[in-house]
């Protein structure tokens, strides 16, 4: 499960400044969204955590992580019923993206 | 030309939709919002033809937003959730449903479903005629549109200021705006519409029209700057 920039590259075409703009945005937005999710989860606010996961889900998609998206979708539903079996798997996805963002 | 707004709490999503809109000549982004409440205020005071709308947002979600508007414009939903697709088509105003991450061909296909107002219907907005008739004391008074330099909201009335005379008329800003040519007039604040040809200068958040300093709201400033023939 390795994140990639295929989607961002595809929609940017040869527009390098737009590509860089998108990368800058995601580098700024992603850690904040992750932090907000973890805060809500640690405070056992599962309904709000579910909304956070929903938002993160689209970022996971942007990085081409199809399996990750499926885990996020499952976890989002679990949280709505106060379940969290997929928590660890979901956090692995977030950490993977976070590390990737530090490299690019 | 379709006047569009983007409502999405994700900056990344707003940037992508904005970029896609820039590829199509008949779309004009007039404003972007990170929450639906601000967009609701904007849409009540400004003409909008098309809204790119996220569903999951804090405070007011996409469907709440649509339900809050008396006569919603065309809506294209943008969401990372496919589960709402069926709900979406219960609304006549929703023309399509884009699942994130959105790609350009699918975006173009969605926008193509909307009929673009033709040149003939544009003339309804005062493009063809230079005259505007207003009802004052049971008389229909003719105003030469290019002479108008400023329109100011005053409660239930508007003050139409021309080179020679001011006319106080019982009307809304939305109503008068729909009668004026967009190439000349621009709403720069919820209480002010200016004739852009009468601008003397612009400073930060205000514009000088004749001798009057008019505030420019943050959401309307980009459109004002877009209209200028800027040297640098």
Characterization of the model:
Chain A is mostly helical. Helices cover 80% and strands 0% of the residues of chain A. Chain A starts with 5 loop residues before the first helix and ends with a helix. The relative contact order of chain A is 0.16. The model of chain A has no long low-confidence stretch (mean pLDDT 94). Chain B is α/β, with parallel strands linked by helices and 232 residues long. Chain B has helices at residues 11-22, 36-45, 62-67, 85-88, 104-111, 119-122, 173-179, 221-227, and strands at 2-7, 27-33, 50-54, 74-79, 94-99, 131-136, 139-144, 148-154, 157-162, 166-170, 185-189, 192-195, 199-203, 206-209, 212-215. Chain B has a five-stranded parallel β-sheet with strand order 2-1-3-4-5. The relative contact order of chain B is 0.10. At the A-B interface, helix 1, helix 2 and helix 3 of A face helix 1 of B.
Computed Rg of chain B = 19 Å
**Number of helices, counting only DSSP H or I runs of 4 residues or more of chain A:** 5
Q: What is the helix fraction of residues of chain A, given as a range?
A: over 70%
Number of strands of chain B: 15
H and E string of chain A = HHHHH
**Content of β-strand of chain A:** under 5%
**Shape label of chain A:** elongated
């Amino acid at each position: 499960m390795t994140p990639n920039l295929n989607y961002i590259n595809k929609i940017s075409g040869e527009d390098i400044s737009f590509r860089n703009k998108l990368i800058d945005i995601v580098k700024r937005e992603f850690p904040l969204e992750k932090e907000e999710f973890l805060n809500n989860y640690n405070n056992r606010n599962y309904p709000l955590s579910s909304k956070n996961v929903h938002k993160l889900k689209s970022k996971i998609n942007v990085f081409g992580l199809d399996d990750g998206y499926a885990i996020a979708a499952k976890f989002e539903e679990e949280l709505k019923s106060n379940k969290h079996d997929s928590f660890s798997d979901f956090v692995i996805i977030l950490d993977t993206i976070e590390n990737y963002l530090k490299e690019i | 030309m379709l006047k569009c707004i983007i409502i999405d709490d994700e900056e990344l999503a707003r940037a992508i939709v904005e970029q896609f809109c820039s590829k199509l000549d008949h779309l004009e982004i007039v404003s972007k919002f990170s929450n639906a409440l601000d967009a609701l205020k904007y849409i009540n005071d400004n003409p909008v033809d098309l809204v790119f709308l996220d569903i999951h947002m804090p405070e007011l979600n996409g469907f709440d937003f649509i339900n809050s508007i008396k006569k919603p414009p065309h809506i294209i939903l943008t969401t990372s959730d496919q589960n709402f697709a069926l709900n979406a088509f219960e609304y006549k105003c929703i023309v399509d449903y884009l699942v994130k991450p959105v790609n350009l061909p699918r975006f173009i296909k969605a926008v193509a479903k909307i009929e673009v107002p033709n040149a003939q219907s544009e003339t309804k907005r005062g493009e063809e005629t230079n005259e505007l008739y207003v009802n004052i004391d049971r008389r229909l008074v003719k105003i030469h549109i290019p002479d108008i330099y400023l329109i100011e909201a005053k409660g239930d009335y508007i003050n139409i200021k021309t080179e020679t005379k001011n006319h106080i008329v019982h009307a809304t800003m939305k109503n008068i705006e729909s009668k004026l040519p967009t190439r000349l007039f621009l709403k720069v604040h919820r209480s002010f519409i200016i004739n852009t040809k009468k601008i003397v200068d612009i400073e930060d958040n205000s514009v000088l029209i004749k001798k009057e300093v008019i505030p420019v709201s943050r959401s309307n400033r980009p459109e004002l700057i877009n209209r200028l023939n800027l040297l640098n």
